[in-house]
Amino acid sequence: MDRKVPARAVLSPAHRIAADLDAYLGDPMDDEAGPFSYKAIVEAEERDEIPPGAVDAVRAWGFPAYLVPSGLGGRLTTLEELFLVTRGISRRSVTVAVMYGSGLLAVNPVWLWGDDAQRRTVADGVLRGDLACFGVSEADHGSDVMASESRAEQEGDGLVLNGTKWPVGNATKGRFVTTYARTGTRDFSLLLVDKRELAPECWSVLPPVRTVGLRGHDLSGVAFSDARLPASCVIGRKGSGLVQTLKTLQITRTAIAALSVGTMDAVVRIGIEYARQRTLYGSGIYNIPVIRDHLVKAHLDLLIAECVALPVARALTIAPGRLSLWSSIVKYFVPVLGEEVVASIGTVLAARGYLREGVAHGVFQKLQRDHAIASIFEGTTHVNLANVAGQLPFLVSPPEETGDEAELLADLFSWTRTPPAWAPDGRLLQLTNEGRDEVGQRFEAIADEVLTAANTHAAPGVAAELKDLLAGIGGMRTTLDEGIRAAAGDTTSVAALGRARRYCELHAMVSCMLTWVHNRQEFGGPFAGGEWLVLCLQRLLQRVQPDTVLSEGFLPTLEDAMFLGFDERRWFSLLSMAERGRPLLRKAE
């Protein structure tokens, strides 16, 4: 295997920012780690609260600045940064991450389409700690935004807003309400409502909504009654609210995957600790084959999620026109993986996972309940599969290549390349991919590149395994393409959603392949060896062919990385297998 790598692989700045936040918040397994220790989190959970001091700590570090683009005085330059710091918070408290995620959804339309005055007002408020909320949902209409009953009618030189939005995150505590309202017979607009500028009698908040998870999160509603707004409250062009909402969701759908990856990191860590401490039948339970199997597969699922989500987070500033498809793939696939990982670790913990005390102070049951929101926010699993299904007929006959595809993929998948800074512009986001998907449509070329590199540089046995795996994956892709063409007019049936699901699985496989191809030289070590790639592809194939087995001979390398991440209290990540760059996610001394 070729071990000649640069003296040091320098990760993009996003990883260093995330490492700084991780060190600042401390080890959640440490009872003395303050408001973000699992002990403090569970104690507050019992009171339906966020731990005292948690929000202050996040603000003191400067997290709100990562909701504001750098051009407006904040620190947000790429979605990769926000994704990774959100992952860091989520492995401790999904509730706190959701609070800021709700704010992100609300302020993004202002960054993308707002005028200078709107951007300046919101940026100044968020940087001071003000919260925002996105008022779209209504009790009787859910995701049917065309049925919205909220209205903003012209009166004089302004608008009069009436309607109720529910349920809405941050509705009570939020200062800004980005409100979706009817402004014509079939026209909808997004309005920037600043509660501080409204007469008190014109608005009210609804009682808090009791939820299974996210206890302590401000989930309530807001009602407007003859609320007078200036004409300047309209964000962008009047009547464009529906398109703006659909485009905005592409960003937050991608960011939500960070909730899942953070949760996976937390529960896998809890499962490993329990497996090491628990003794049955005279030895540690990790030696029980089924326990080992659950933990190894959960760790693989986390690595797969990392491969799928990070490139799409980078796409906001590299290929924003592709997010209509890729964000829905991520929003479907990663939370589903997260649910499966949580359930699997629940099997490892058995009765201990059901308790609200004991292992890690009983935080597992909170993580389990909180993570359930990931598949619901920003379009449910089925909504996102439907988004993918609607584009499939246009993707099986790709347009002529431009010649830039290889460089685009390198920009997306190379962890050592820094994406361009975000200059928000809603025009760059598209409602469809217009038939292009550089990840899914270039399988043959990518497979050839993988096999060529594996034959020369991979660990012994990897190339042979990959050859067989890629042949099988190629056959699956051909079968899927034939099915899409045979039912080109069907994009809404259960069968169509099944095809969309298979497309997402293939996307995940290719994402793992591209992650190896574009980082192996820089990272070296077991990462470059490629055993993990074989295992990830086999793990993904188990979704289609459950009798697929993992290559036992490659598991020790994976387990070494898994236990290294646990012992050194680093994130579970492919970085644990890299010769270069590993210390960046190490706990501060």
List the helices and strands and how they pair.
Elements: H1 13-25, H2 38-45, H3 54-61, H4 79-90, H5 94-113, H6 116-127, E1 132-135, E2 151-155, E3 158-169, E4 176-182, E5 188-194, E6 203-206, E7 219-230, H7 241-277, E8 279-280, E9 283-284, H8 289-318, H9 323-349, H10 363-371, H11 381-395, H12 405-413, H13 443-457, H14 462-486, H15 494-517, H16 520-523, H17 525-529, H18 531-541, H19 555-567
Parallel strand pairs: 1-4
Antiparallel strand pairs: 2-3, 3-7, 4-5, 6-7, 8-9
Protein name: Acyl-CoA dehydrogenase family protein
Domain Acyl-CoA oxidase/dehydrogenase middle: 133-226
Family: Belongs to the acyl-CoA dehydrogenase family.
Low-confidence stretches: 1-7, 583-589
Count of strand segments: 9
Question: What share of residues are in beta strands?
Answer: 5-15%
**Given the C-alpha coordinates, what overall shape results?**
globular
- What's the alpha carbon Rg, rounded to whole Å? 24 Å
Mean pLDDT: 94
What is the share of helical residues?
Answer: 40-55%
Order of helices and strands: HHHHHHEEEEEEEHEEHHHHHHHHHHHH
The largest sheet has its strands arranged as 2-3-7-6
Alpha plus pi helix count: 19
N/C terminus separation: 34 Å
A few lines on this structure:
The protein has helices at 13-25, 38-45, 54-61, 79-90, 94-113, 116-127, 241-277, 289-318, 323-349, 363-371, 381-395, 405-413, 443-457, 462-486, 494-517, 520-523, 525-529, 531-541, 555-567, and strands at 132-135, 151-155, 158-169, 176-182, 188-194, 203-206, 219-230, 279-280, 283-284. It has 589 residues and is of the alpha+beta class. Mean pLDDT is 94; it is low at 1-7 and 583-589.
